[in-house]
Target: Xanthine dehydrogenase family protein subunit M
Amino acid sequence: MTPFDFLVPYSLDEALELLDDEDPNVRPVGGGTAVMLMMKAGVLSPTKLIGLHCIGDRYSDIAQSSDGTLEVGGLTTLAELENSLIVMQRWPLLHRTLKTLSNVRVRNVATVGGNLAHADPHMDLPPVLSAMNASVIIAGRKGFREVHADSLCTGYYETVVAKDELIVGVRVPVQRQYGHYAKITTRAAHDWPALGLAVTFDTPNNIIKDASIVVGAATDRPIRLVQTELALNGVDLSNFERIQVISEKAADEIEVMGDTHGTADYKRQLLRVTLRRVILAASKRQVQ
Model:
């Protein structure tokens, strides 16, 4: 392993000053789970790592704001978010998703900000946060900006976060009436998925409203199925035949990509079959 410097700033401003937009070999580190694997694999040889664990407790807080929004610090570990009582009670979709994200050893160390910044298309959290209409808070030397979770990832391991910026928080609105995330793996439940599919919606008078459908793992980034959402809105939840027809057409809306977890044709068929099941599963998981 190539020698590198490990620097520990004691404030957000100090951390931002240490980052360099023109030097890809300077990397911030939250939990370090992804960075260390990349270094061991030889695909990353940093000259400097910026440890973020001392920049302030506020960046690892979990709280509910006055308008009901869930506020999560970027340095919050996945395990802390998973085990938060307020998340269990008010954002159960998020809680259930985290229980099968990687394994407990990783969740005890990996941070929310690092997970999102890594932008692996197989990640579980980005499609779920997108379906929940969450937003991501990004800090830079010129201040803070907020981007919708839909817009965060731009491609394989690519995001809108510049090399001299940090993800410092996530905001999640009040969860919709129904929501479910399906993670289809070829091995263990906590493995990388061949398909990740997140769905949320409301159902006044049993009619689907404000549906959000986001696909992960089958594409180079989480992608919202906008046309499928439009087709689903206004459908009676008990109209299984109509839901089936809409689900079978969903795969035609996006370019599905194959990888080591499955061919494009396999993932396309998974999407056709899984969407109907996720909608029905979501309808049985009403938020209290």
